[in-house]
Predict the structure.
Amino acid sequence: MSQRSRAAVVALPVAALLASMASIQIGAALAQRMFPLVGAQGATALRVSLAAAILLAIHRPSPKALGPAQLKAILPYGLSLGAMNLLFYMSLKTIPLGVAVAAEFTGPLLVAALSHRGRLDILWLALAAGGLAALAPWTQGSGSLDPIGLLLALAAGGFWALYILFGQKAGKVGHGAATAWGMLAAACVVVPFGVAHAGAALLTPSLLPIALTVAVLSSALPYSLEMAALTRLPKATFSTLMSLEPAIAAVAGGLLLGQHLTVRQDVAIACIIAASVGTTAALVSTKGEAAPLPG
């Protein structure tokens, strides 16, 4: 194989993974356009329910394969997925997209660090904690963040950690089936909140195109791209690239939403990214695995 061919073999899955992360963050940015009409709860309900319909249509899992053991694995996975999405979208009402993603990333970072428990993990966790401390609204000013929004993003990170732990068990049902059934369970969690908040506004015809676009960009498309990348990239490379998602979110927020971060917020996000890179690289080098990320 020529050098150019080898470069193409690596470049294509890397491009697919970067496109996947960009797709997710563009979807999150577009979802905020629904907030004025249906709120974050309604936007979450539309996105997750449509994503469930798309994934069920793609994977067509058989209900006959869902026994008590499978349901016991799927339900916690889906509940954590639904709560994670709801809390994350609610955080976007008051804090920038890049900051929300960085705060949410502390969930999988903690899971990875606890899975490895190496000496350097103390350093990576301290670096992440320093990044969060820099984001915390210690004083009121132009660069101060809403404390409730930041707490919601951190809570979403906690459910992301549960999603990872439960997802490892749910994956035994079959990756495609677990994802489809899990998203359906997530829809059962978030739709009542959306209905309670937005009511009949959820049925507004003009919302369907953007809601469907968000569902595709946030679930169906990135899931397919991530799977293509995961099967062609070393796990260390995959995990390290995934750690760039907060930076991609910050760029998406700036370009699509006009959210320009302060220098302190940029440094804080960089600290969390560095901690994530260090932790996942150490985990992959010792165990050959990395914490899965929601597609």
About this structure: Residues 3-287 form one domain. The chain has one domain: 3-287.
